[in-house]
């Protein structure tokens, strides 16, 4: 029937892989519809802000603005026109009512340009509040001033504003109740233009390019269907690189703290110093200024013009300010990739924002390299490891400055290498194997104390791969001690920093009193563990996969999260013929479960002691991402060796489904970030 060789080959390809191509085609159509339906996000005109004047340094507030206060701030416009002033107010999340009075004056003509009441219930704590007025033209070089009054508000029912120190004084004056404060308020003056992000032609070209790239990558997956480590690269690299670029600066979980920590490491400042201001380090003020410029640009869509302006900020390393960074308690080892990126940005571009993006990029490259190695060496359960390698939470963290990206990658590599030694083609455990295990294990144990029980995975290696029981014990101790000694040394060096509790969440935290409470009330604490597990466990599970992997602004679609969960359960349960190597010893399942429960207990206890008030009946502060390094142990432990998959083409099916999920995640983020 099919005489032409190419046509016959195409027919056989479609016949054998009709399900794969059907999934790809359906997803292609859905992507097309999704892009079309959300075209307004990109082609409908929107507000584009440009900075006219910016006073960004700030350490102190002026106190509560009450009825007897009048605050006047003058400034000189640096551009020709403006129509918005942005001021961050401190409300302390109180339920406030009443108004501030606002008045804008042209100083030269003494003309009142604009007056308005600012309702306190519209203010958000710490976030910029927009005050809009008719556009002011020909403003460059002219002096203006605005006045804020409390309109009879009582203490405890009002808000405050930040002001700078005397050293930060610029072209203007801050006068409070007639007194010159020799400083300034924290505020921005903005010009606003209205235009779309993309023209219709550019939007169509970009949309078609993304769709064609998606289809092409699905075809390429067919070539590497039996080489999961290479298939991983085809999906992970474009998705991760896109995440590096599109997620707004410092919009990743804790990325702000990791930014400061990576810079400290790039300068060789591995531990906090004891200074007159307290425990911390002196970092360039330009880093803090850059953070203030761009940190909250996601509130009403990505403000590309603000980011573009922030690239012009220079590092100026001589001008420094004191910073107490809670991430400074983390060891420098897990910040090596980010620090390298920041060093590169410092040397070549002299730009704090470019340092951030290069730190993200090299952190992602490090994740890709480590996970590629894990997928290549693991001898069993390759599909399960492939799923964890592309876990949305892991990919998104890898595309940030977070140390969790390296921790997750190294934990996956550690488990993979242990399985290679236990079930792979390794006859005897040699010194080389021990050195590699210690090298990988260092990253796991140093990252967080709670992951130390993962070293017990060494017990999965059969006794027959050692000379005798004495050799087994000796080599186990070498690995255990080899990973623990650097951990102990680091914590002794960092003892003063660790002794300061993290008061950002709950000011009443007292680790010492909480430990005593747990020891004196063990039954209550056990009950607290179960209450937390059953009440918060389901939300932590979906969060671990990546339901909210950024600063709680861009939730992933539920269909993606539950597809990953279903696939992980499926490939945890079923096995291929190669996976049957794991069924030899019954105790292995017990080892996996014990390590999993031990780490979970340590995570819960660490958060209970370090984050919750004494005797709290529920453990708050636990995030699903903390369980990523150990979650694979659960899915390894549920294997049913009676269920065997003999269809070798299933690799392509799982690769295509996950590939579609990751592109769906990327498209969703693009719309949410710009929406």
Structure description:
The protein has 675 residues and is of the alpha+beta class. It is 50% helix and 14% strand. The protein is built from 22 helices and 15 strands. The chain has helices at residues 5-16, 18-37, 40-43, 200-223, 228-246, 255-266, 285-294, 304-310, 336-348, 352-377, 382-389, 392-398, 404-423, 431-447, 469-493, 495-498, 511-520, 522-545, 558-573, 587-610, 628-637, 650-674, and strands at 46-55, 60-61, 70-76, 82-90, 99-106, 111-119, 128-136, 143-149, 160-163, 174-176, 179-180, 187-195, 273-275, 278-284, 320-323. Strands 1, 2, 4, 7, 9 and 12 form a six-stranded antiparallel beta sheet that branches. Strands 6-5-8-3-10-11 form a six-stranded antiparallel beta sheet, with no helix packed on it. β10 (174-176) and β11 form a beta hairpin. α2 runs antiparallel to α4 (200-223), α11 (382-389) runs antiparallel to α19 and α13 packs parallel to α21 (628-637). The longest helix has 26 residues, at 352-377.
What are the key terms here?
22 helices, alpha+beta, six-stranded antiparallel beta sheet, globular
Q: Could you give the topology of this structure?
A:
Blueprint: H1 5-16, H2 18-37, H3 40-43, E1 46-55, E2 60-61, E3 70-76, E4 82-90, E5 99-106, E6 111-119, E7 128-136, E8 143-149, E9 160-163, E10 174-176, E11 179-180, E12 187-195, H4 200-223, H5 228-246, H6 255-266, E13 273-275, E14 278-284, H7 285-294, H8 304-310, E15 320-323, H9 336-348, H10 352-377, H11 382-389, H12 392-398, H13 404-423, H14 431-447, H15 469-493, H16 495-498, H17 511-520, H18 522-545, H19 558-573, H20 587-610, H21 628-637, H22 650-674
Helix pairs in contact: 2-4, 2-22, 4-22, 5-10, 5-22, 6-9, 9-10, 10-13, 11-19, 12-13, 13-14, 13-21, 14-15, 19-21, 19-22, 20-21
């Amino acid at each position: 029937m099919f005489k032409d060789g190419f046509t016959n080959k195409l027919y056989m390809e479609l016949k054998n892989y009709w399900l794969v191509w059907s999934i790809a085609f359906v997803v292609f159509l859905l992507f097309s519809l999704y892009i079309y339906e959300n075209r307004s996000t990109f082609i409908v005109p929107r507000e584009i802000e440009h900075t006219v004047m910016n006073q960004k340094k700030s350490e102190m507030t002026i106190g509560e603005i009450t009825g007897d206060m009048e605050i006047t701030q003058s400034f000189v416009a640096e551009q020709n026109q403006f129509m918005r002033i942005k001021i961050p107010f401190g409300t302390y999340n109180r339920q406030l009512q009443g108004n501030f009075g606002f008045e804008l004056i042209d100083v030269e003509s003494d003309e009142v340009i604009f007056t308005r009441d600012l309702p306190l219930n519209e203010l958000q704590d710490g976030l910029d509040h927009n005050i809009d007025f008719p556009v002011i033209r020909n403003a460059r070089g002219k002096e203006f001033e605005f006045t804020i009054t409390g309109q009879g508000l009582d203490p405890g029912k009002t808000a405050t504003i930040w002001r700078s120190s005397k050293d930060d004084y610029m072209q203007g004056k801050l006068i409070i109740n007639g007194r010159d404060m020799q400083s300034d308020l924290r505020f921005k003056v903005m010009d606003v233009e209205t235009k779309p992000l993309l023209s219709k032609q550019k939007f169509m070209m970009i949309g078609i390019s993304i769709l064609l790239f998606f289809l092409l990558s699905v075809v390429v997956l067919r070539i590497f269907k039996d080489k999961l480590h290479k298939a991983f690269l085809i999906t992970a690299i474009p998705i991760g690189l896109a995440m590096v670029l599109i997620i707004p600066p410092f919009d990743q979980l804790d990325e702000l703290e990791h930014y400061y920590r990576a810079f400290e490491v790039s300068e060789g400042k591995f531990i906090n110093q004891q200074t007159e201001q307290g425990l911390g380090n002196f970092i360039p003020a330009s880093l803090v200024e850059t953070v203030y410029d761009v940190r909250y640009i996601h509130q009403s869509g990505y403000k590309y013009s603000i980011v573009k302006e922030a690239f012009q900020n220079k590092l100026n390393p001589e001008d420094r300010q004191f910073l107490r960074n809670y991430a400074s308690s983390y060891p420098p080892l897990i910040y090596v990739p980010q620090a390298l990126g920041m060093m590169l940005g410092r040397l070549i571009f002299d730009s704090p924002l470019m340092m951030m993006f290069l730190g993200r990029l090299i952190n992602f490259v490090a994740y890709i390299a480590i996970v590629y190695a894990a997928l290549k060496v693991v001898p069993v359960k390759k599909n399960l490891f492939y799923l964890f390698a592309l876990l949305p939470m892991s990919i998104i963290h890898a595309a940030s400055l977070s140390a969790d990206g390296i921790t997750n990658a190294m934990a996956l590599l550690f488990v993979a290498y242990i399985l290679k030694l236990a079930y792979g083609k390794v006859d005897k455990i040699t010194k080389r194997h021990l050195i590699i295990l210690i090298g990988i294990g260092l990253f796991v144990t140093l990252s967080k104390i709670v992951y130390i029980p993962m070293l017990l995975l060494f017990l999965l290696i059969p006794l027959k791969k050692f000379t005798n029981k004495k050799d087994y014990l000796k080599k186990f101790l070498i690995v255990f001690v080899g990973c623990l000694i650097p951990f102990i040394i680091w914590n002794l060096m960092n003892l003063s920093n660790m002794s300061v509790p993290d008061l950002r969440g709950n000011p009443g935290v007292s680790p010492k009193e909480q430990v005593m409470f747990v020891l004196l009330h063990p039954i209550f604490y056990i009950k607290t563990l179960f209450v937390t597990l059953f009440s918060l466990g389901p939300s932590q599970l979906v969060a671990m996969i990546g339901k909210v992997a950024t600063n709680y602004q861009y939730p992933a679609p539920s269909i993606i999260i539950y597809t990953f969960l279903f696939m992980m359960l499926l490939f945890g349960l079923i096995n291929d013929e190669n996976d049957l190597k794991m069924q030899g010893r019954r105790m292995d399942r017990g080892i996996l479960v014990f390590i999993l429960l031990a780490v979970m207990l340590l995570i819960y206890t660490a958060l209970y002691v370090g984050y919750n008030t004494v005797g709290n009946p529920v453990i708050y502060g636990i995030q699903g991402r903390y369980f990523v390094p150990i979650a694979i142990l659960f899915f390894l432990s549920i294997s049913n060796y009676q269920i065997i998959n003999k269809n070798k083409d299933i690799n392509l099916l799982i690769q295509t489904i996950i590939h579609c999920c990751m592109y769906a995640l990327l498209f969703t983020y693009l719309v949410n970030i710009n929406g």
